[in-house]
Design a protein that fits this description.
Blueprint: E1 3-7, H1 11-19, E2 24-28, H2 43-55, E3 59-64, H3 76-86, E4 90-93, H4 96-104, E5 111-113, H5 122-130, E6 133-137, H6 144-154, E7 157-164, H7 176-181, E8 197-199, E9 206-208, E10 210-211, E11 213-215, H8 220-225, E12 230-233, H9 240-258, H10 264-278, E13 282-283, E14 296-297, E15 311-317, E16 320-325, E17 329-330, E18 334-337, E19 345-348, E20 351-353, E21 359-360, E22 362-363, E23 368-372, E24 382-385, E25 400-402, E26 418-422, E27 429-432, E28 441-442, E29 447-450, E30 457-461, E31 463-464
Parallel strand pairs: 1-2, 1-12, 2-3, 3-4, 4-5, 5-6, 6-7, 7-12, 11-13
Antiparallel strand pairs: 7-11, 8-9, 10-14, 15-16, 16-23, 17-22, 18-19, 20-21, 20-23, 24-25, 25-26, 26-30, 27-29, 28-31
Helix pairs in contact: 1-2, 1-9, 5-6, 9-10
Length: 472
Amino acid sequence: MIELLAPSGNLERLKIALLYGADAVYIGGYEYSLRANAINFSRDELKEATLFAHQHGKKVYVTVNIVFHNKDLEGLKEYLEELASIQVDAVIVSDIAVIETIRENHIPLEIHLSTQASTLNYEAALFYKKLGVTRIVLAREASREDIKDIKDKTGLDLECFIQGAMCTSFSGKCVLSNVATNRDSNRGGCAQICRWTFQINDEDEIFSMTPKDLNMSIYLKDMMDIGVNSFKVEGRMRSVYYIATVIYEYRHLMDKIKSNTLEKRDILYSNDIINRCANRESTPQFYDKMPTHQEQYYLGREEISNQDFLGIVLDQQDGKILLEERNYFQVGDVVEFFGPEMEAFTYQIHKIYDENGKEIGIKYNQTEVRIGEEKQVSNTEEIEQITENDSKDDDARLGIMRVNKEGINPDFDKDIKEYYLVVDENVKKLDITAVPTNSEAQMTITGNENLKDGLNKIKINVTSKDKSTTNE
């Protein structure tokens, strides 16, 4: 069995992942998940997710992989029994206490061992096999030889990461976040200290310990040949666009391998698309050799993207498409469309209509628009889509953070002093929270912002470090 496994931080991402080619998804509930800052799934949403996946012949795995303290055990048995009643396909666990709870209470759940257990040898894998584990999610630090040896000597299903962020420490062993921010990295609170930059002297030189992303596209066939069963993409907190793009490209490559039609140009093309989407350089990391300084960002990094996520196609009729807009675009832009079971194609925008059928020339609010008559991307650089606000005010919804200057990097740049938060014209109030950035430029806004009628941009003044930051 060969499986492409996708991350999903909410229902929208889950559906996108499955429709764009994933065979299974891994998700977290509100309890016991290592992505506490993701939106995650309520119990009703877990049911809906499982039903949707099964209707499409796909699978759902639920993470129960925090490091458990005594108080965390309260309610664990009942939660596991509920997951079994929902008929999720497996749970991903790291703590032996969870495995024992499932065994002692005869809860009908398939058990996958999380990468948090740092499994890198066959003896450890055999130990977990005796406990009832049917699949091992190997540590990201596993080499080709490690993987093949474990497969040959255990016969277990093996799941390996093929794309996404790397931990600086061994998988599941890092406590940097605990020390620096008092947020427990092994109980869902990782602050990603390894992504920070640090000043190392009075000359403003910086140091970082950030690994480059993992990318195993060139070794997919070899991984299949040595017995890897599940090919896992990291990123439950990644955007819809990232998930759709990465899953779409890996599905394409895996299908080419299965049909024995994969060519080098296929890998080069997919790598180009994936790398531009992720904004970080990527490498096979531990698979083919021990990583060197070439696989690390020691002196900071420059993130470059020349493609933006413009929107989601909702419908097509009468020569027009209905688009849920997610970013700025205008008449004359050349855009690219890609989707499930279709070849990507490019198209120049000739006309744009608003919700009322009125022709417009430019679009940057988060609303539905129609594009008619007749892909390069808009030359406005997207910083990042800000997540929807959880405010009780139904109208409160964050817009898109976007720079009014071309070519800026996704982190706040020390030389750029003004940024704009572009918001939906119907929004009346925003809750603005602190956003950590690099050490050279910081936005440290807190509090509420009431919007005046007709205002759809908030100016944010950014100052260098150690100075206060204000907004308008």
